[in-house]
Specification:
By secondary structure, this protein is an alpha/beta fold. The protein contains 14 helices and eleven strands. The strands form three sheets. Strands 1-2-9-6-5-3-4 form a seven-stranded mixed beta sheet, sandwiched between helices. It has a two-stranded antiparallel ribbon with strand order 7-8. The protein has a two-stranded antiparallel ribbon with strand order 10-11. Strand 5, helix 4 and strand 6 form a beta-alpha-beta unit. The protein binds nicotinamide-adenine-dinucleotide. The site of nicotinamide-adenine-dinucleotide has 28 residues, from helix 4, helix 5 and strand 8.
Length: 361
């Protein structure tokens, strides 16, 4: 039976789990029945808690509940916060059937997942994503972790959630830049694997810009279906899952060069996808018109599509050469041949990337 747009499954055998998408889910969905034990730790942040924490707490009945509200932002995704959350579980004497609930964006989700992965070597974990990026990307797939001073996401574990509850009503309070940044990842799924979805996004760009509920459910569900499919086929990124990095090698270099926080991840990915499409054209893989079409769509969705002034091509290139996906010093990038068709390409010449960064035709 095909999944409805509002209910999907991530097919991972005994670890399969549901993704639910729609309005009113925090207050109305039957998600509390998915919790097995008595102990629940809710992790959230200061921007999310005032709006949504009470409705989640109200559904937990007589369970033993601890809540930790973090300051917002990437800087909180640390070992120190991780240790504090584990201390909360210890204080409440949480047992092996405890559940960690992540109520927030990708920062809260990644941190909570890592806490759940480590407490007693792994307890249940429910993702309640409240950013568009978390709904379409970080809450699905089980990558968890924290940052070190030496770099982002350097410590972590694969630990799948037991459920993802994406209540689109929470997006009403998301700041516009954060919302647009999430849309970049939505566009990515069309770009790498679904030309029809890319055309749908072109047709519904205005509705998405206006945060129309039906368009959002459709866009999130389609994105999650793609991510869930990739994760089910390649959970540990041995192959296909790497395609999800389309635009990300350029994007990570841009983010790092800008200084974390100046360019949002999704904004950097939007620029990165346009650059990856241009590189594809330069290497003879794809027509230039496709890249221009992608840039037009991203711009309509409120995203940047060109390098902001002041970026140095050689410094960006040097950062890209440090990317952990490279093998034996040869650059590995995700390129496309046309919308909906991307591939991993090894041994890309640095000179070609440099030309693209310099805006040479
Ligand atoms: N695990 C994965 O597979 C994966 C994939 C992509 C990204 N990530 C990680 O996700 C993180 C980025 O996630 P993000 O973009 O969601 O950032 P975020 O969690 O920092 O949230 C962005 C901002 O929006 C605020 N916010 C969240 N929900 C809100 C709401 N409903 N209303 C008002 N404000 C709200 C937050 O407080 C924060 O200030 C990064 O750490 C990245 O490494 C993980």
């Amino acid at each position: 039976m095909p999944d409805s747009p509002r209910r999907l499954e991530v097919e991972l055998g005994a670890r399969r789990y549901p993704i639910r998408i729609g309005p009113g889910l925090l207050a109305e969905d039957d998600w509390p029945t998915l919790l097995r034990g008595r102990h629940v730790l809710i992790l959230t942040d200061e921007n999310v808690a005032p709006h949504y924490l009470a409705q989640v707490q109200a559904r937990l009945g007589d369970r033993s509940v601890a809540t930790r509200i973090l300051p917002p932002g990437e800087r909180e995704k640390t070992l120190a916060r991780f240790a504090e959350a584990l201390a909360d579980l210890a204080t409440m004497k949480a047992s092996r059937d405890a559940t960690v609930i992540a109520l927030g964006g990708g920062v809260v989700g990644d941190l909570s997942g890592f806490v759940a992965a480590c407490w007693m070597r792994g307890v249940a974990f429910v993702q309640m994503p409240t950013t568009l990026l978390a709904m379409v990307d970080s809450s699905v797939g089980g990558k968890t972790g924290v940052n070190l001073a030496a770099g982002k996401n350097l410590i972590g574990a694969f630990h799948q959630p037991n459920a993802v509850i994406a209540d689109i009503d929470t997006l009403a309070t998301l700041p516009p830049r954060e919302y647009a940044a999430g849309i970049a990842e939505v566009v990515k799924y069309g770009a790498i694997g679904d030309a029809a979805f890319l055309a749908w996004l072109e047709a519904h760009a205005d509705a998405l810009g206006a945060r129309d509920g039906d368009a959002l459910v459709q866009a999130i569900a389609t994105s999650c279906r793609h991510k869930a499919g990739v994760v089910a086929r390649d959970e540990r990124e041995q192959g296909e899952r790497a395609l999800l990095n389309f635009g990300h090698t350029f994007g990570h270099a841009l983010e790092a060069e800008a200084g974390y926080g100046r360019l949002l991840h999704g904004e950097a990915v939007a620029i990165g996808m346009v650059l990856a499409a241009r590189l594809s054209t330069r290497l003879g893989h794809a027509p230039a018109e496709d890249g221009e079409r992608l840039a037009t769509l991203l711009a309509r969705l409120g995203l940047p599509t060109a390098l902001p002034p002041g970026f140095d091509a050689d410094r960006l290139l040097a950062r890209m050469q440090l990317d952990k996906k490279n093998q034996s010093g040869r650059l590995r990038l995700i390129l496309w041949s046309r919308p909906g068709s991307a591939a991993i390409v090894d041994g890309v010449e640095a000179a070609a990337i440099r030309d693209v960064l310099l805006g040479k035709p």
